[in-house]
Write a structure and sequence with these properties.
alpha+beta; Beta-lactamase; 5-stranded antiparallel sheet; disordered C terminus
């Protein structure tokens, strides 16, 4: 087989989950018309119910408003002069007054903690120049996040037949918001004061559920109760989204309990771990070990099956440069590709010209069992369980 043609080493790892059978919960029933539970780091869906159905989303819209705002105007300490058309907006309010001056930071906290509809319009008008332009930015950002079943028509979530999303799309948005340090700090804040304004977070799980790190509530009569929350335990972060859920607080706690108890984050490939060896030609060194460039972790439950596939050449010609790329390792869970890492050479290998002659290698093949071990298996896959 010519150099550059890859062979496949495949072995099956039957996952051993440390969680006892008694501790593993059945997936709970929830009252929501749509729901989803995801692991943030891997994006694995741990639970879903009608998660791709388009629905009204009410004020959880403001997560997108906040994201677009801080991405377009990173300096949240700057002063905003309130225009008259940004005031007296229907629904929840932080009671902005025409021509008063507040910081963008104040507006963001009023947007995400108090859920002020006037704050949403002010943020949009200030950051976008006008509300319509800002809403276009919201839709463009949704496309960037692959929120293919979402459409925004305003920055506050007031009912509109063309303003909708899905539980799955809102989970993608929530994951992005959590990765923004400014917004992660805002949504996790229980209460804060700005001059004469005091904001208390409407997310009750910040007080009720251990490890909750916030997100956003929503409600209109047509949309019903909508809720996005996130929780973290032992470095494991989960997001729950429910749409049209009359019992949302309870449902979110049940879903978090299910996720944390039934799934354990497993390190399937470790950064720096020696994965395999590759035969070397043209050197007294017979082989060189390969290490994984990245860690690949994934939340697994009892019965999940993981598979590691190693893709490298039959051999490498010396000289070999340390840390250069030799191939890759692919990790599958239940036949789905969940991660890829480069394989790199652990050591440098110098060329020995006397061994560059193919006949010398033939001698090693005849007399050296160790050399034979590193010869590639032609046209053959190996599998172990």
């Amino acid at each position: 087989m010519k150099y550059g043609v890859y062979f496949l080493i495949c072995f099956i790892l039957l996952t051993c989950n440390a969680i006892s059978a008694e501790a593993i919960m059945n997936a709970p029933d929830v009252s929501a018309k749509s729901a989803i539970l995801i692991d943030v780091d891997s994006n694995r869906v741990l639970y879903e119910k009608n998660s791709d159905e388009k629905r009204l989303i009410a004020s959880i819209t403001k997560l997108m408003t906040a994201l677009v705002a801080v991405e377009s105007q990173p300096d949240i300490k700057q002063t905003v002069r309130i225009k008259e058309e940004w005031t007296n907006i229907e629904g929840s309010s932080i009671y902005l007054k025409p021509f008063e001056e507040v910081t963008l930071e104040t507006l963001l906290y009023g947007l995400l903690l108090r859920s002020g509809n006037d704050a949403a319009v002010a943020v949009a008008g200030f950051c976008g120049g006008d509300v319509e332009t800002f809403v276009d930015w919201m839709n463009n950002r949704a496309i960037d996040l692959n929120m293919s079943n979402s459409s925004f028509r305003n920055p506050n979530g007031l009912n509109h037949e063309a303003h909708y999303s899905t539980a799955a799309d809102m989970a993608k948005l929530a994951t992005c918001v959590l990765k923004n340090e400014v917004l992660a700090n805002v949504v996790s804040t229980k209460s804060i004061a700005f001059d004469e304004r005091n904001f208390t977070n409407s997310n009750k799980l910040l007080w009720r559920y251990e490890g909750c790190i916030g997100m956003k509530t929503g409600y209109t009569e047509k949309a019903g109760r909508t809720l996005v929350t996130a929780a973290q335990r032992n470095g494991h972060t989960l997001v729950v989204v429910t749409l049209s859920d009359p019992n949302d607080w309870c449902d979110h706690m049940k879903l978090f309990d299910y996720g944390f108890s039934s799934f354990q984050n497993e390190e399937l490939v470790s950064q720096g771990e020696e994965i395999t060896k590759i035969r070397v030609e043209g050197s007294f060194v017979r082989s060189v070990p390969l290490y994984a460039d990245e860690t690949i972790s994934y939340p697994l439950k009892d019965g999940d099956q993981s598979e590691v596939k190693i893709n490298i050449a039959d051999f490498v010609h010396a000289p070999v440069k340390q840390d250069s790329i030799a191939g890759n390792v692919e990790v599958y869970v239940n036949d789905e590709l969940i991660g890829v890492s480069y394989l790199r050479y652990c050591n440098a290998v110098e060329q020995n010209t006397v061994l560059a002659n193919h006949s010398i290698h033939k001698l090693f093949e005849m007399f050296d069992d160790e050399y034979q071990f590193y010869l590639p298996k032609r046209n053959q896959n190996t599998e172990a369980t």
